[in-house]
Amino acid sequence: MPSEILEDLYEFAAQSIPSNKILEAKKQYQKETGEIFEDDKSFNTRMGLFLEWYLFDNYLPEKSKILIEVLIEENQPKWSKEKLEAFQNISTTINSLFLVKAIKEKEVKILNLFSDEIYTVQEIDSQLIFRKNDIFQGRIISYKDQFCFTGNYCFHPLEVHKFIKPQIKLIKKIQNQHKKDLRKIEKLLHKENKILEKQVAKIEKINEKLSNTGSNKTRLNQKLSDLQNNKNDTSKVIQILEKDIVTLKVEKIKIDGNELINKLINKFAYMNLKWERSRQINASDIYSN
Predict the structure, then answer these.
(1) pLDDT of residue 261
(2) Helices marked H in the chain
(3) 213 has a pLDDT exceeding 80
(4) Which candidate in 21, 51, 117, 139 could, as Cys together with 95 as Cys, close a disulfide (CB 3.0–4.6 Å)?
């Protein structure tokens, strides 16, 4: 079960990562989400959310990878095949703010408010945990061709939904522009690759003519030289476009995009913590810029 695999992963991380590094990461996380104490009602849930962030969202700058990817890479030779596959299967997660669309027995249909994708997620206690139109922070993983929750949630009250949604739209606007730029560059790359294919074909034909021509090769050699220069120029353009695509996909959309999403999710989690501690204050007074 995913919960058992997650527990194994948490235990391994606690044993293999120096405690001072975990404490340092916790301080960094709580700068955005607020410091928590054992007498907080949501203490266990928020500690669970921290561990999930630490393993699945915390990019190591020197590696451009999240911690679980680094752990898998470094320990792959030591782990059994079963353990390796189990951790690899849960290494890709979706952390987001979700809107509950429909609730059925043992499953719930949710909308990812950042990507507009809809997921049907298995949850045995779906009818106890969720209400239609809830907005909540959660994380889903794919396990055996099904989506499952990790089990840690942060539900935001109905009266602040009108505050939350416009801020999500701002991030979606940034991400959509990056995706638009990516599609444009991919289209240009496709065009340049087609040009390169034609140039290579023409060069092959001229080389074939040169091998079959007995004399007066000057004109063909000049044409071949021009084509080689054009081919080199096209190859340089392709290299630049490929680099731009990697920058957009990895740095802008994946790393920077996830950071923007996490910062907003954490900001709302902090507001939620303040509201949890101050029940006599209206949530709309706490959820504000």
Answers:
(1) 96
(2) 2-16, 19-33, 43-56, 67-75, 81-89, 126-129, 161-212, 218-246, 257-277, 283-286
(3) no
(4) 139
pLDDT digits 0-9 by tens, 55-73: 999 887 666 789 999 999 9
13 and 55 Cβ atoms separated by less than 8 Å: yes
**Which element (helix H / strand E) includes 139?**
strand 135-143
Burial class (CB in 10 A: 0-12, 13-18, 19+), 124: exposed
2-26 pLDDT tens trace: 788 899 999 999 998 999 999 999 9
DSSP assignment, residue 267?
H
How many C-beta atoms surround the C-beta of residue 106 within 10 A? 11
CA separation for the pair 277, 41 (Å, rounded): 9
CA distance 154 to 142: 20
**Both structure tokens of 68:** 């679980």
Compute the distance between CA of residue 164 and CA of residue 288 in angstroms, rounded to an integer.
9
The one-letter amino acid code at 285 reads D
- Averaged confidence pLDDT in the chain: 92
**Crossing angle for the helix pair 2-16 and 81-89, nearest 10 degrees?**
110
- Cα gap 281→267, rounded to integer Å: 18
Tally of CA atoms within 13 A in the half-sphere of 79 that contains its CB:
17
- Residue 83: half-sphere exposure toward Cβ, Cα within 13 Å: 13
- Give residue 280's pLDDT: 81
Beta bridge partners of 143: 146
